[in-house]
Amino acid sequence: MRLTSTDAYSVGRDLIAYLHTLFQNKNIPFGDFVRDYAQENKFKTVTTQSFQADMEKSFNGSLQPLFDNYVYGRSQKRGLGAVSYTHLTLPTNREV
Q1: Residue partners of 48: CB distance under 8 A and separation at least 6
Q2: N or C terminus: which one in the chain shows less Cβ crowding within 10 Å?
Q3: Which pLDDT tens digit goes with each residue over 18-74?
Q4: What contacts 74, CB < 8 A, 6 or more positions away?
Q5: Whole-number Å distance between alpha carbons of 12 and 14
Q6: Contacts of 58 (CB under 8 A, 6+ apart)
Q7: Which candidate, 55, 53, 19, places its Cα nearest to that of 36?
Q8: Model pTM score
Q9: Range list of H helices, 1-96
Q10: How many CB atoms lie within 10 A of CB 46?
Q11: Nearest alpha-carbon partner for 95 in 16, 38, 23
């Protein structure tokens, strides 16, 4: 039984694209953040909150409105309801 809306994939794509643009506008290499984050957390389970905190540290600013909108579904305009997972597990080498 699917608990996550199939819209989550396009919303996730939109979030990543928007984050890339925000980082780029501040001359922060988003790809480097993603690569380093994945390497530092390889084979670990991370929470959405810890991912957000690390991203905000790298961005040097709050990304709460974006996470509220795209991840937690708290936006009036684009809410997707509750997210059906509480953590993200980065893939292992055999899953990539």
Answers
A1: 67, 71, 83, 86, 87, 88
A2: N
A3: 999 999 999 999 999 999 999 999 999 999 999 999 999 999 999 999 898 888 877
A4: 68
A5: 5
A6: 23, 28, 33
A7: 55
A8: 0.67
A9: 7-25, 30-40, 48-59, 64-66
A10: 17
A11: 38
